[in-house]
Amino acid sequence: MTLDQGLAFGLMGATIALFLWGRFAYDAVALGALLAGVFLGIVPVEHAFEGFADDVVVIVAAALVISHAVARSGAVETIMRPVTPRLRSVAIQVPVLAGATMLLAMVTKNVGALAILMPVAMQLARRTGTSPAALLMPMSFAAMVGGVVTLVGTAPNIIMSRVRQELTGEPFRMFDYTPVGLGICAVALLFLAVGWRLLPGGRRGAASMDAAFTIGQYTLEARVPEEGEAIGMTVAELEARSEGEVRVSAILPAKATELAGAQERAQAPYPVARASEVPAPDRTLASGEGLMLRGEPAELERLVAAAGLVLAGEEAVPDNPETDEDDMRVVEGVVTGESPLVGRTPAALTLRSRHGVSLLAVSRRGEQRIRDKLSQIRLRAGDVVLLRGLAATMPDNLGELRVLPLAERGMALGQGRRSWIPLAVLAGAMALVAAGLLPVGVAFFGAVVALFVFRVMTTREAYEAVDWPVVVLLAALIPVSGAIQRTGGTDLLAGWLTGAVEGLPALAALAVTMVLAMAVTPFLNNAATVLVMGPIAATLAGKLGLNPDPFLMAVALGAASDFLTPIGHQCNTLVMGPGGYRFGDYARLGLPLSVLVVIVGVPLIAFFWPLAPG
């Protein structure tokens, strides 16, 4: 072993030790390792920051943004809506939700697929009395398994494609993983459909900080636009869009709605618009009518988007064509006793024109129904309001109005969203990649730009959607892991591993490689596992006189199959709190699934990627 090899191994060993210790953030450790590599001379200065320009970093960041846009769109919930009422027992809920998560993870990043369907699972659990613990871990495992089917489903596949390009000059393409991945998915789904019974009963999800701010239901005012989807829909049909989570408490006549808007723009009080009595379920909605909707903010947002309604006060504030959605904010606050809002209506205060904010919704304790237009409500001390306005002036506006802002809860109400555009953009990007017209990085980068062009999301929301610690971790570890290969360390490790598997059948050597990747991933991080083990596996294959591709596939599949701990993969971490899981719960379901992946995956890889060099 040379000095440079010893330094490279020592640096990687120290990095892994710090990952295991957990005292410092992963991204901070990776940045420190990169700096140490430069100082030690094993990472050339000219290569120190090449990871930040690597395609894999762009692909992972773009996949997270696209997944967030799809999650916010509500399109998946719309697709699932005809199915969810039929999911009455756990035995049906688990395979359907796991299967849906698996399918979605095949076309978008697996953690994004899980995040999209988790709200559906939580709502279903609440309505049917099912424990979330029975649903969330199978969905997490299904997301990880589904991600191995395509190039963009999981980070290990993306990184392994880059590793193969460096080693052979040819990357793995979009659907090179598909034959093996589909076989793994079929076996995993069959197992999860019955294996959920291995999970302990009685687990209860941890309460989030949102629970500390349980305000109750909000009432908002929305309008049925001309040629809108809700025209001709009955009240019962509209409420069914939210599966009963949102109620229509009153209907405002169309003329009153239009008159109110015109007179408010003239900055003058207007006559009170009389709402109808409690609308009958078979009452048909007409163009221009106003609706008073009551429910939780998330459910209200989904219904407004799904039915194509327009929120009162959703217009840009102030009316300026240069105002962009990036500049807008929705804030939740409490009306204090000193507020000029107390005892007055937003219309009388000319809230929008004078203070630059719009009232989107109101929550009032002890008030079962608010039937007047929001602009005509006399606000009280203690009312909780959702206000929308310019981010730059919002703090001053809240101070003038004596409204105390609550902890930020990621309110998306009033932000607007285009329900089917994100899925269409994603499908277009996937088609361009599959046809070989664009590389993955360019296609997904273009998809993010398209989301901005179609105003599906703002640039600020895109920045918030990216998991920056993961991006920094990848960018910093790429040159560090390259140091082991550059100094000849991968050849040295491959020699040791060759000695360990010498005399074993080729399938056994392939199985050992996959198991080793599985064993390392919970402690190292799946991206780092691929970066470190990919070159080692390829070198091992060369020393054994075998084709490197199946060994690279084995590392990618093993690194993507972290079912044993809550810390090795974001999907497992994401469900730990809501599912109320303990560390040891993951092995109950994950260990037999890991064994199945090895038993099924090794022969599948060898079949579709022959071990003998071609």
TrEMBL record:
UniProt KW keywords: Membrane, Repeat, Transmembrane, Transmembrane helix, Transport
GO CC terms: plasma membrane
Protein name: TrkA-C domain-containing protein
Superkingdom of the source species: Bacteria
Residue ranges of the TM segments: 7-24, 30-49, 56-76, 96-121, 133-159, 179-199, 421-454, 466-484, 496-517, 523-544, 589-612
Compartments, as annotated in UniProt: Membrane
Gene3D superfamilies for the chain: Regulator of K+ conductance, C-terminal domain
Organism in which the protein naturally occurs: Muricoccus roseus
